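Figure caption, in words: inputs first, then the predicted bound structure.
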Amino acid sequence: MAYRVPFVDPQKHYSNLKDEIDAAITDCLSKGDLILRSQLEDFETNFASLVGTKYAVGLNSGYHALALSLLAAGIGAGDEVITVAHTFVASISAIVHCGATPVLIDVGKDYNMDMEKLESAITPNTKAVLPVHLNGRLCDMDRLMDIAKEHNLIIIEDAAQSVGGKYNGKVAGSFGLAGCFSHYPFKILGGFGDGGTLTTNDPDIARKTILLRYNGEDRETGEYHYHGYTCLLDNIQAAVLDVKLKHLPEWIKRRRAIAGLYRQGLSDIEDLFLPHFEGEKYFDVYQNYVIRTKKRDELYNYLEEQGVETLIHWKRPVWEHKGLKLGHLNLPETESICKEVISLPMSAETSDKHVEYTVKCIRNFFKQK
Ligand SMILES: Cc1ncc(COP(=O)(O)O)c(C=O)c1O
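Bound structure (pyridoxal-5'-phosphate present):
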């Protein structure tokens, strides 16, 4: 179905950048620069400078950034890692795959880790906390860093949805031992395929990740230090991401402007909870513009009929997927969120007209109710 307002618009995204992207890809192909070449190094240098860390390591997904961070930090069997249940499943799978036990806690009204719940989930086996900066908003990092310091816990940030987001002027991915980013095509900084980056200030984590991403091999000596993986960010994706990185500030500005337009158009509707949370410390980048209503399913269907494409992240709590073997959890906020949230069209290509039409449809929907 062709939507009048698409959720995202990858064709328009490409056509806006066509000349720069084509030149970057042609440069790689004509030089035969496919694996571990200067384009990857350039992207890593520029990404590290954006985040404000000493190192950035290009990987082939956000999942691998999480998995390799945990492995490089020495987390494994017998360790507990606390994260939230309201996240993309990869945050949890990375913990399971390194052999540790995920301990899932509830989130607060801003969809991020409820720090009140964190302290009571800590046990003598807790080794790390994996905060997820969801939808483009950072967690309460003052509180989290204090708790981590007090209990001597490692922090691995899942910043897959928050590239360029800030807390107290400090950028997502620069607080913990490692920051993990996704460049899945529809992320704020997305490639034309899968990709991810790990950021860190720790030379040991950076070195281990560089070895692990390339089958454990030190490319200079030929020595295999670990049983590793094949999970490099390939050169062409790195070249594409490096082009896109230059546009990131303008895209973030646009996303914040779109969020402002939604707020203007929708803030007086009762039974509609908008994602504008208090706190001067936060600089939100709106990977997703998530609204919340008890009439979610009806609203979703109505917008679909009107040609507005929306998405729901996520319809069922993770623990209800029996194959994940997470047991049964009782996390009321996570459960309600699954029934009530809906994400509106949001991308750098979303136009004012798209937003106006979406707002009009939502207003009509609530008028009829
Ligand atoms: C919060 C979160 N964590 C982890 C990931 C995993 O990233 P990727 O899809 O690049 O493996 C994603 C991506 O969808 C995500 O949104």
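The mean pLDDT is 97.
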